[in-house]
Amino acid sequence: MTLWADLRQKALSDIPSLEVVIWDAIRIAIFFALAQFLIRVGVRITRRMLSLHARMDERRRKTLESLFTNVIRYTVYFVLVVEILSLFHVNVSAILASAGIVGVAVGFGAQSLVKDLISGLFILFEDQYGVGDIVQINGFKGTVISIGIRLTRIQAWTGEVQVIPNGQITSVTNYSRTHSTAVIDVTVPYDVDVDLVKSIMQRVLLGLQEERPDVVTGPVEVLGVQDVSNTNLVIRATAVCAPTKNGEIEREAHERIKEELDRALHENEEAQGTTGGELAAE
């Protein structure tokens, strides 16, 4: 009977008083309110900082906003739980040590996943490329259709979609950030009038520049003879274009130059025919 009474007395002595319970409840409520306040402030600051990047597309902005919001929320809640546990005299250090051991074990088992996630963060934060950009990644060229924390998806112009883990990306060439240069090479017979061909190329490129100033954004230049063989000459011209528009201008320029050369050749033949007829009449 005495033992039971001692145990009862011990249990009752360990029960905190009503004042202590109320004070602890108030502290928990204050911690929770402070946590909500910190989360809101952190999210607002994050949104404000991301909105200052004018070049960042909406998809990347939303991805980064969601990512940083989750990081802020989980960090604040983690600190909140630690503080609440310390109120109840829980050995937080032992829990954190156990969690650290588990984290190390998981990290060794998921190294590639962690590498993909970290690389994805750097790609998004450094704005290496965005959705819609034409890029070449690890030798595969295409248009970026999605960027995730772990994967990047690229679609080639022929339709194939390449899925690349971000941790495996070793080289990136972005064709959509700076101007492109259209290189127009025209192969003509060796005995052609070079000045005539150069004048036609110059006229065609200047016409394209006047018609499409949003595409041909820089200077055009006829460089002259680029290559010489026994039977042909290669005459080169260049035009500075908007990003990724150089191929379009090259095709259009080649078609127009071909038409102009055909017209000039036809006029030359007619002129020679007329001269030959006059000489025969005499």
From TrEMBL:
Compartments it resides in:
Cell membrane
TM ranges are 20-43, 64-88, 94-114
Q: Which UniProt keywords apply?
A: Cell membrane, Membrane, Transmembrane, Transmembrane helix
Please report the stretch or stretches of sequence annotated as the Mechanosensitive ion channel transmembrane helices 2/3 domain.
Answer: 70-111
SUPFAM superfamilies reported in the protein's UniProt record: Mechanosensitive channel protein MscS (YggB), C-terminal domain, Mechanosensitive channel protein MscS (YggB), transmembrane region, Sm-like ribonucleoproteins
Per its UniProt record, what InterPro entries does this chain match? LSM_dom_sf (IPR010920), MS_channel_1st (IPR049142), MS_channel_C (IPR049278), MscS_beta-dom_sf (IPR023408), MscS_channel_2nd (IPR006685), MscS_channel_C_sf (IPR011066), MscS_channel_TM-2 (IPR011014), YbiO_bact (IPR045276)
Q: Name one GO cellular component term.
A: plasma membrane
The UniProt entry lists membrane topology as: Multi-pass membrane protein
Q: Name one Pfam family in it.
A: MS_channel_3rd
Molecular-function annotations in GO: mechanosensitive monoatomic ion channel activity
| Disordered: annotated segments | 260-282
Q: Start and end of every Mechanosensitive ion channel MscS domain? A: 113-177
**What region holds the Mechanosensitive ion channel MscS C-terminal domain?**
183-264
Bias class Basic and acidic residues marks the residues at: 260-269
Checking Gene3D superfamilies in the record gives: 1.10.287.1260, 2.30.30.60, 3.30.70.100
Cell membrane as UniProt keyword: yes
Is-annotated flag, keyword Transferase?
Answer: no
The job of this chain, per UniProt, is described as: May play a role in resistance to osmotic downshock.
Q: Which family does it belong to?
A: Belongs to the MscS (TC 1.A.23) family.
What's the protein name?
MscS Mechanosensitive ion channel
Q: Which species is this UniProt entry from? A: Alicyclobacillus acidocaldarius (strain Tc-4-1) (Bacillus acidocaldarius)
Q: What's the name of its gene?
A: mscS
